[in-house]
Write a sequence for this structure.
């Protein structure tokens, strides 16, 4: 089995609610990852693929919770940055006999379809694919549409919202029944929010996007970094107040 060079141990994982699992980011430019189980078929849906180096850790962490990586049939991406998409390349190699369908929105889909390395690796980070033991190649991507409905078994119905600010292609996934928000790097716990100084970033867009998700009914906030929360609205509102305070300095 192919994995990029990695010494990663099993990712810490835990059940959030029935059929929703959280796997904590590893300490090497990685991201949180989320697995949802289709209660009708047993198939797995993965949100964000991590940095590639942590993939074995994800698979081991999944195994510890009785989840088989071979059952991953769909991957949904929040945006195009290195720490969220590099895992795609080893995943499609490992699962090449039955590769998962990869879904992304707008600019993110375009970047991955073209294999645009410069957009995956923002220049001011000073990193390259070689540092992750990977080569960027064009990928087959299914384009997401605004307000598209994603059904995962009979338990979950997500809507796709374009929430730029951290990047052009950033989206958030919202599940109204269970009040789940997967916002990528838009908003985090503890009053934090995504960087807006990368190419395609915008403070004004970030503020508008956080304002939008702040109006949703969120219990479970499942962000791309830091901790998750079961007090989502309070966390999002705190971040909204903090990002507004930054705007006041400009």
């Amino acid at each position: 089995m192919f994995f990029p060079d990695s010494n990663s141990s099993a990712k810490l994982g835990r059940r959030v609610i029935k059929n929703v699992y959280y796997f904590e980011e590893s300490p090497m430019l990685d991201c949180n990852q989320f697995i949802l189980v289709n209660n009708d078929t047993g198939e797995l849906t993965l949100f964000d693929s991590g940095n590639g180096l942590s993939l074995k850790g994800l698979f081991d962490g999944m195994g510890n919770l009785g989840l088989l990586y071979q059952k991953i049939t769909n991957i949904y991406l929040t945006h195009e940055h290195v720490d969220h998409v590099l895992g795609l390349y080893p995943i499609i190699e490992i699962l090449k006999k039955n590769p998962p369908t990869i879904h992304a929105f707008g600019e993110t889909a375009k970047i991955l379809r073209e294999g645009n390395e410069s957009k995956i690796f923002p220049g001011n980070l000073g990193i390259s694919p070689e540092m992750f033991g990977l080569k960027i190649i064009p990928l087959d991507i299914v384009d997401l549409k605004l307000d598209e409905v994603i059904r995962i078994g009979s338990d979950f119905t997500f809507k796709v919202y374009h929430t730029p600010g951290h990047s052009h292609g950033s989206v958030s996934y919202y599940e109204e029944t269970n009040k789940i928000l997967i916002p990528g790097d838009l908003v985090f716990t503890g009053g934090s929010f995504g960087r807006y100084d990368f190419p395609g970033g915008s403070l004004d867009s970030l503020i508008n996007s956080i304002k939008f998700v702040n109006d949703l009914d969120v219990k479970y906030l499942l962000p791309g970094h830091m901790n998750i929360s079961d007090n989502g609205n309070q966390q999002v509102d705190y971040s909204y107040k903090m990002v507004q305070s930054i705007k006041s300095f400009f």
About this structure: Residues 13-247 form a domain with the Metallo-beta-lactamase; Chain A fold (CATH 3.60.15.10). The chain has a mean pLDDT of 93. The chain has one domain: 13-247.
